Amino acid sequence: MKCQISRDELLRALQRLQGVVERKSTMPILAHILLEATRDEIVLFATDLEIAIRSHLPAEIETPGGISVSAKKLYEIIRELSDTPVLLEAPDAHHLQIRAGSASFSLVGLPKEDFPSLPSTADEWMLTLSRAVLADMVRKTLFSVAENDPRQVLNGVLVHAFPVADTTDVSLFLVGTDGHRLAESSRACESGGHPLNGERKIVVPRKAMAEIRKILDDGPEEVTLGFSRNHLSFRQDGTTLTARLIEGAYPHYQQVIPASTSVSIDCDRVLLQAAMRRVSILAREKTNAVRISLGPAGVTLSTDNPDLGEATESLPIPPPSQEVTIGFNARYILDILAAIDQDTVRLSFIDALSPCLITPSGASGYQCVVMPMRV
C-alpha cells in the first residue's frame, strides 16, 4: 500500500474513530484501525464488535493495499504533523511508514486479514433528515440514559418512528430514561422517498448514540438513518456508523408521562438553574436532594446536610394555587434545564409523591419527567 492524503482530512477521520476503538479488550487488534487503499480513496475502519465506523477519504493512490495499526498512536502522530500532505506506505503486512515534510515514522502493524469485520446488514427502512434536527434530539435525550443498568434496554436510546396518517411524513421520537428521569424529544420528518409501513421501535446503545452525536458536530446538512432488525446504520457524507441494537422490549414510557397535573409554575430557566446550582452545593453528596416548596410566599429551594449545613433561596415567582413541598435530585433537574433552549420552563405535578413534568413554556416536541424523592 502506498498513498498520499491531506493531513487535515486524515486527522478529522481518525478523531472520529477514537471513541469506538476498544483499548481494554482481550483482543489487542480491537485497539487497531484498519487502513485500506483502493483505486482512488483510502478507507478507515474501526470496531469494538458492537459498533463500527467506516470513513472514506479521497487520496492519491499509488499502490492499493491495507494494514492495521494502533489507532491511538496513528492519531497522535498525525495530530502533531504540520499541515502538509501525508505519505502512507506499507512495504509489508507488518509495518506502516508515515512521512510528512522532514518527519518520518514507522509503526508496527498487523495484516489486514486479521482485522475483524461486522456482518453485512441490509437496511429494511431508511430516513433522511436534517443534521441539526437529529443533533438536537440526541442532545436532549442522551443525558437521561442509564449507563450500567441490569435492565439492558435502559442503557440505550429508544428510536420510535411511525407514519403520520394520510401523509408520507414520519413522526420520530427519541426517548431516554434511567428509571429516575425520562426525556422525550419528537419531530415530524419527511419520509424522503422511503415510506414507513407500520411502527418501528429500536434501542440504540448509549455509546453508539454518543458517537453519532460527535459526528453530527459538523458536516453536510442531511444525514441518513437506516433501520434493520438487529442494526442501525448512520450515514453522513463519507462516514458510516453501524451499531448492533439492544434486544428486549423498551418500557411503556408514555405511561410515565403525567396525563394531567394540578399544580404548575412557570420559571425563568436561567434563574432556576442558577438557584438550583447554588442550593445544591450543600446537598448530600449521595442524593443531591433539594426541596422545592410552593406556598403563599412563592417558591423556595432548600436543602439541609447534617455534615455541612443548610441552604435556602427564594425565587421571584407568583404564589401557586396549591401548597406543595416536593424533593428532587438537583442534578437531574440541572441536566434537563441545560438541555432546554427556551427562556421559560414549566414545572407541573399533582402532589409531593407524583412525578414532575418539565416542559419548555410555549414550545412543543420536548418533555421530561423526574421522579420525586422523600426529603
Q: Report the end-to-end length measured between terminal Cα atoms.
A: 65 Å
Q: Which oligomeric form is depicted?
A: single chain
Per DSSP, the total helix count is: 6
Total number of strands: 25
Low-confidence region ranges? none
Class derived from helix and strand content: alpha+beta
Which whole number gives the mean pLDDT?
Answer: 93
Biggest sheet, strands in spatial order? Answer: 5-1-7-8-9-6-2-3-4-17-16-15-10
Just give the CATH class of the largest domain. Alpha Beta
CATH homolog superfamily of the largest domain: DNA Polymerase III, subunit A, domain 2
The CATH topology of the largest domain comes to: DNA Polymerase III, Chain A, domain 2
Descriptive report:
The protein is an alpha+beta fold and 375 residues long. The protein has 3 domains: 113 residues, DNA Polymerase III, Chain A, domain 2 (Roll); 129 residues, DNA Polymerase III, Chain A, domain 2 (Roll); 114 residues, DNA Polymerase III, subunit A, domain 2 (DNA Polymerase III, Chain A, domain 2, Roll), CATH 3.10.150. Helices cover 16% and strands 43% of the residues. The protein is built from 6 helices and 25 strands. Strands 5-1-7-8-9-6-2-3-4-17-16-15-10 form a 13-stranded antiparallel beta sheet. The protein starts with a strand and ends in a 5-residue tail after the last strand.
